[in-house]
Structure formats: C-alpha cells, structure tokens
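To close the chapter, one final illustration. This time we ask the reader to focus less on the individual chains and more on the assembly as a whole: which components sit near each other, and how the overall shape emerges from the parts.
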Amino acid sequence: MARRASAEASARRPVVALLTDFGLQDHYVGAIKGVVLGVCPDVTLIDITHQIPPQDIRAGALELAAAYRFFPPGTIFVAVVDPGVGSKRRALAAQAGGYSFVGPDNGIFSVVFSEAPPSTIVELVETRYFRPAVSRTFEGRDRFAPVAGWLARGVPLEDLGPRLDAYTTMSFTTARRAGHVTEGEVVRVDRFGNLITNITDVMLRAMDPPLTVAAGEHAGIAVVDTYADTSPGALCALVGSAGVLEIAVNQGHAAELLHIGRGARVSVVSADLAEGLGPKSRD
Amino acid sequence: MARRASAEASARRPVVALLTDFGLQDHYVGAIKGVVLGVCPDVTLIDITHQIPPQDIRAGALELAAAYRFFPPGTIFVAVVDPGVGSKRRALAAQAGGYSFVGPDNGIFSVVFSEAPPSTIVELVETRYFRPAVSRTFEGRDRFAPVAGWLARGVPLEDLGPRLDAYTTMSFTTARRAGHVTEGEVVRVDRFGNLITNITDVMLRAMDPPLTVAAGEHAGIAVVDTYADTSPGALCALVGSAGVLEIAVNQGHAAELLHIGRGARVSVVSADLAEGLGPKSRD
Amino acid sequence: MARRASAEASARRPVVALLTDFGLQDHYVGAIKGVVLGVCPDVTLIDITHQIPPQDIRAGALELAAAYRFFPPGTIFVAVVDPGVGSKRRALAAQAGGYSFVGPDNGIFSVVFSEAPPSTIVELVETRYFRPAVSRTFEGRDRFAPVAGWLARGVPLEDLGPRLDAYTTMSFTTARRAGHVTEGEVVRVDRFGNLITNITDVMLRAMDPPLTVAAGEHAGIAVVDTYADTSPGALCALVGSAGVLEIAVNQGHAAELLHIGRGARVSVVSADLAEGLGPKSRD
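The assembled structure is written out below.
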C-alpha cells in the first residue's frame, strides 16, 4: 500500500487551460477555443475561470497562482486579463515550473513566476503564429489563442519571438509578523463567502498556539482543522486548500456575516499571550 | 427506416461528468479537472452543473438524478456537495445502472441509487489513489478527482477500499394521490422559471382527465403537451423533459408570476370532478 | 517569416459547438453533451454560450454569427433558442460556409445564413437519428443532440431528412447612411458593458474623417483604435473584434455610463462637417 500509483501516462494529449475576465455571457471564450482547436485539433481545453472581475489583473494573478500546480506537467496556460489590449504593452510566452504560460506582460503572471521562476520568456512578435489580422481589442482570440495552439503542437517557445530578460511584476502585500501577532489581509472571497487571506500555513506554524483570529468587528475566532469542526453557522478560521488562512462560516457565508471583503485586515494572535494570561506573556 | 442507428462505438474515451456546488467564479472546478487529467490524460470532462446552491445536498441529488441517464454507459460521475468535507463522513465510489459514482456518502446519491440500486459500493480509503496530501477543505480536488481519474484508467472499484453494505440516504417527499386529487410539491425551479414538481407522468396518467393544476394562488391551470400549445404569457402545466409535471409560462417565468418556489404545494385535480359537473363526480 | 504556419492537421476530432439559452444552473447542457458523447465518443464539445436571454432568438442569432467563423472547418454548431419547442415549427440541419448547423427553423441561423448562404438544408424528420422518445419540451436533448452526434460520426446530411428549399429568417435592422451621418443601433451589450452596434467597419471607412459618435445623451465621442488609446474612465468608440463599431469606456462600463442598452440609437457623424467648419461642408 505504500506504493503510490503512477500518474504518468505514455501519450498525453496537450492541455490548454484558460483564465480570463471575459465572462460566460458572450461568445468570446468560445471563439478563443475555436481558434485553438483550429491550430491543434487534439487539444484538451479546460476553463479555470472566466469570471475574474473585468480588468482586475491582480485578482487574475492570484487565481491563476492558486490553480496552476494542479494541472499536469506541460499544461499551457492562457491568462487574459488585459486592460492594455491593443496598446504597446508586450505579450509574452514563458516556461516556468514545467508549464507554459501565454498572455499579456502586465503582471498577470507575477504570483506564479515568484513561486516558479521562468526558465525562458519570449516576446510574442512572430506574426506567422498569430491569426492573419489581429484585432486591437481581442488579442486573446487573434494572438494568444493561436500561439497556445502552436505550443500545443510542439512549436518551440524560442520560435515565437526574441528572449526577454525581464517581465512586468505587480507587488502584492504580504502578511507580516510582529511579536505575537501576524497581520495580513483578505486577498479573495470565494463563492462560499470564505475570506481567503495572505497568511500562510508556514507563518501560522511559527506562532505559539493556541491561535485566534480577528477580522472586521470579530475577534477570538478559533482556528480549526475543517469547517465541520464547528457547529453550523459558527465562524471559524482554518488553513484552506490553497495553504493559507481563511475565515469561514460552517454552512454559511463569512463575507456577509463579517461585512468585509478583499483588502480587509486580518490578525492572528497567540491567544494566551494576547489575553495577558499565559506565562509567555511575561517573557 | 425502422432500424435505429447504433450508437455503440468501438473505442470510447472515458467520460467523467462533474456536479458540484463550487460555482464558476473560483478556480476550484479547474483544479479538479487538472487533477483528473493528470491521472487520465485521455478523459473527456463534462460539466453537469456547478451551480448547486452551496451545501444543498438535496438539490444536488435531484439534479444528478435528472441528468445521469443521458450519459453514455460507463460514465464516471463525481458529485461534490459536501458540507461535511474533512470530517469523518465517509467517501464512496459505487457502480449503479452501468455507471460509476464518486463522492461523499452524505445522501447526494440518494435519488440515483433509489432508481438504480448500486451493485457495488466501496469506501474510499486506499490513499495511494489520492493526492499525496488531502486538504481537509477540498476533498473534491485531492480525493474524489484522482479516484475518478483512476477509475477512468481502469482501476477496479474494489481496489479503492473495502465494500460498504449501506450508504447514507435522504428521504424525499413523494407526491400522493387521495381520491381525485394528487398532491405534490415543487422540487426545483429552472433557469426559465419553470416549476418542476415531484408528480410523475405515471401518476397523472392514472387520473381521470381532463386534469387541472393548482399552485400558489392560481387554480385551474390547464395541462398541455408543450409550451407552445398556449399563448405567450399564459400559465400552463405539462410533463416536462424529466418525466414529471412542471408549471410553466409560455415565453415567461412561472416562478415569478406565481411568487412561489421550491417546496411550494402543487395539486392536480380531475377537473370535471372538482367542479362537481362531470357525470363521474357522482360515481 | 512571410510563410504562415499551416493550421491543417491530418486527423481531426470532430468539434460540436453549442449555443443555447439554457443557462448553467440546470443539468440541461450536461444532458445534451451526454447524448452527443453517447453517439460520438470522440467528439470535442465546446460551449459558445448558454446565457442567451431566455427565448431571445434574435440575440442568439447575433451571438452565433459573431462566433462561428473562428471555429475550424467542419465544426457542427447546435443552436437552441427555441420558444416553439414541441410545436410544428420545423427542425433543420444545414451546410453553410464549410460548417454544419443544427437547430430549430425559427430564425436562429438568419445572420449566419445571410453571410454564408447554405448549400444544403434538410428537415430533421428521420427519427432513427433521434433519441427513442423525443420530449416535447427538450428537443435539444432528444433531437438536436443526437443528430449532431451522427453528423460528427459522418452520417451525410441528406440522410437526416428531405431537402428544404427555404428556411425561416428574421429581419435585422441595418445601419443607414444619410449624407454625412450614419445611423445605427446597439445590437448587444457585452460583459464589459461595451455597446456593440450594427455599424460596420466598411460603412465607417466610407465616411469622411474625423468621425465622432453620438449615443444616449453623449455626442462627440472620439473614434479610437483601441481602449488604451484613451484615459481610464473615458468614453470612446472603436471598431471592435467583430468588425463593427462599439462604444466603450476604457476600464469602465459604457452601458452603465450612458444608461442605454440594446436597441439604442447610435449616430456617426463626419465631425468637421457636423460642426460646419470643414471645407467640405460647403461642397
């Protein structure tokens, strides 16, 4: 039983995974997929999400970073949240962490590349890998989609354009520890109303338990292992599936209960110390 | 022309069909698909829906039951509406009706299994078929997704864990006939505002026509064959595509017109009898 | 570099692309896909959109027309916006522009067929290519889906039923030029709030620049090449990715800013002339 079954299959079909702010009401995502299939008919197309808030590069960068590592090696990610579409902002393709990434050079890959530094980045300038006419309002369809298709068909990254030594990054606030308190913030709110923070599991394990969490007007929120460890309707905090602290309500909606959202401050305190009761508070 | 074309193809790619309450704004469904593809690259992934109301096992059970029979034999269904994620509630895989089912043992398969009693059920305990670390808040990604991938690759159900003799069931209210009236309720409301009930076609055929339907503050709703049999904007009742009575408005939204939703009572009456006019009313 | 890479692959998997008003909350789209896969397991299924407003054939026709040309040759499109489902309205399959189309004969293909006149149209009457029982409320599942599957498997169009010489068309308002002004209207509003009109690129190029656009209570809107040519929050007009004029707000939502939507009038004027300043105004 100690043996882990091997997930490596012999002949993989290429996977192209898409993340955009295009939504699902319009034909835009369908058109992108049609173009990819026109270049590489054998591709498997997967949606990560298309509901990134319009033009919110930051949200796209975080969502992509939360998802990419669960895809098979070699997956080609196309990420298009692109307020600068049609302008002179560069477009890139990169290899990083065993994956390929295609999209605008506007910071959308910031978080992924900080975790998995790219081994190669190229600027997308070889027009023969684009559609014949590139719309200045929809490069996702005319530039990024065909490039992803060609990568899926085995075109080397280097053929797509000259190497880039640098790429655009966005800075993200990181949580900070000061003594017995770690201060962070909510970085996204999911469908369940869970408030996902930038406070990592590693930071929590470096603190003296028991820990409690404060956010909005609530303090003393207990840290548990899973939602079901509390009673339905109760607030709790836990390390979620992305390896960071989240605040949740068992079978409820934490964002609505706390009336907070993205950007809200979250504090984790070593409970005994915070209350001035533990022996360590006098250390 | 009497011959029906044969739908059986020689070499099928495995199909994994997903039903969850994860929504589409987050990367959760994408991560599940990435994991399945990492195990079984050749799989075809299909979404049934991811818009089950959060934690609403009952709604998930009904939607899954409405859908599964339209998939090809051998389809592997992953159904994750899982308020008890990370707790001691069991996880299962089963074979039923020529299909496989994977998910929490919390009642989500109640309706399917009442129609298609499972031939084999196993508890998912063989960790080598899971991801190396199983998040206590996202078993869909770390436990159910890889198990579905392994089933798609041909791992026998029995290898996943020991047999279970029983599984969790939820009871669903069934419609009841009393004399010339059948009483049921709305079990779901679809995108078109159609009010889908638990009153089956079989029950209706057992009643004396003509039939009329009452719901909310409306009575005498005519039973028709299809929406277009009434004028636009008119209320009607009919046996819908799931084989149960639904109340609809031709080119309109019945739920809004009647101000009712799930759980609302619906009565079907044999019209002549109800009005005391028909000869049978004196039988 | 002048050589364009060839997108023609040797062995294509058939592509079936879906456009409906079924939404994503219910199992309806999943059931359709299950049926297609049951007939043709090797198919690639792509969603164009399922968010066409309920019963809005006109919106469906426009969205389909905006999307189809980006799919690979041979793609089979299933378009189901079908208020007349179950009635005597005909159902058709057609070949046009190198593609196949399947759906109700209610005008949904009007715009596509006006651009790409069909070479063959047949009425879908051969029941052996349907599911054994056809629901009168869900022909998408029982009639159109299996027919698409059989087409994907190579069944000739002619086998599906007798030829039709005519099909139902809807008329769409076209923009008109009168002197120095072109008058059109908004035909759809996309997720970003962009107001997409029926004024084509060709019409604009026939006018004397510089051009300005008027819509709602705003006039003098400048025509630019792409969103990023204006400052964030500024109104602009441009030829969008569908080759028609759209009104947009850079990183904003034009429909909300202008308080207008589908059907709103839009005028393009030759700016110098409109102001009575240019030499040509005295021509």
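The interface with chain C takes residues 22-35, 37-42, 45, 54-55, 83-87, 89, 126-129, 132, 135-138, 141-142, 146, 149-150, 153, 155 of chain A (CB under 8 Å). Helices of chain A lie at 28-39, 57-67, 110-115, 139-152, 201-205, 254-258, 271-274. With these observations in hand, you are ready for the problems at the end of the chapter.
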